[in-house]
Write a structure and sequence with these properties.
By secondary structure, the chain is mainly alpha-helical. The protein contains 14 helices and 4 strands. 67% of the residues lie in helices and 5% in strands. The two termini are 34 Å apart.
Length: 378
Amino acid sequence: MRFTVERRLQQPRWLVVAVPLASVLFGFVVAAVVLLATGHDPVTSYRQLFDAAFVSTGSLDQTLIAATPLAFTGLAAAVAFRMRIFNIGAEGQLYMGSITGAAAGLYLGGRGSASPWVIAAMIVAGCAGGAAWASIAGALRAFFGTSEILTSLMLNYVAGYILTYLIFQSESYWRQTKGFNATVFPTGKPLPSNAVWPAWTLHTQGGIALPLGAGLAAVAAVLLWVLYRRTRFGFEVQVLGDSVGAARYAGVRTRRKILSVMAISGAIAGLGGASQVGDFSHSLDGDPNGLQRQGYGYAGIVVAALARYNPFAVVLVAFLIGGLDNAGNSLQGADFPSGRVGVIQGIILFSTLGGELLVRHRVRIARTPQAPAPEPAS
């Protein structure tokens, strides 16, 4: 038999849904085999993960905390990747969004309950900071043909050093300079009370606190879907992603689209940074072992890939990955090593990416023709 791989001329709609689901299921099966090989009961492990992520008291709150930044960076990656602009810099754009968002909150905030105007200013500032940082790599790609992969990746490290400098190596506006331990244990200046973002408690069993950032991520997913499916801009981006030559022939302004897509991508990541400050940390976190250690920007690329760059699927996948991260952190110990969750996530990712082959291509099995039998000698 001979196996050949052929590109599909048409992709059935059911295949686009069935293959990713089957790939995830296959990933869990392979992970179960790995767990068995290492002496762990897969059923017990999966039950522990599910309970710690979604069922136990307070688990959904922690899952939403872990999933919210993943949703923003996943959406940022999906926006750019749909046009084959590989923005690897969501990590740095999230940092810059947290810096500008915190600046707006510190400058405009005051006493009292949450102010819609201050929060709106933080949102705008976070988007502007992320968009400006992403536009550096976008401009280099649009006007000089520089690879956005390299430039956006290197800008992540620059943004990380800026974040650390503002808190640990300077007397900046963002650093807490008052108090007995201010010089010994540098921390970010806490936000005023009316700059802290609200959370809505869903009246279910135990109560679930829904942060404002999670709602903003869902709204961003809806807006992106409309932008890409119902506007001329989205159609032109789709054409550019399929064929740059065809887009130029049709009169699409390539440079303008590159700059626009990178700015939108960076703005979403920057909004995630503002959400981190307003929703969770309530101060600028410059600790290399804090915000920078989480790697939300790089994890967002994984989320976008698993979701096949669909905005709604990005939010769902971010919630599931956030649940796994939360479960791994809460279960970490001698009986449940932290690497076990990472192994499961890696297997699921590779299974899903491998499943993409079946969405875009088909595998044909052909019988190898047998050589004709030699004629008998006369």
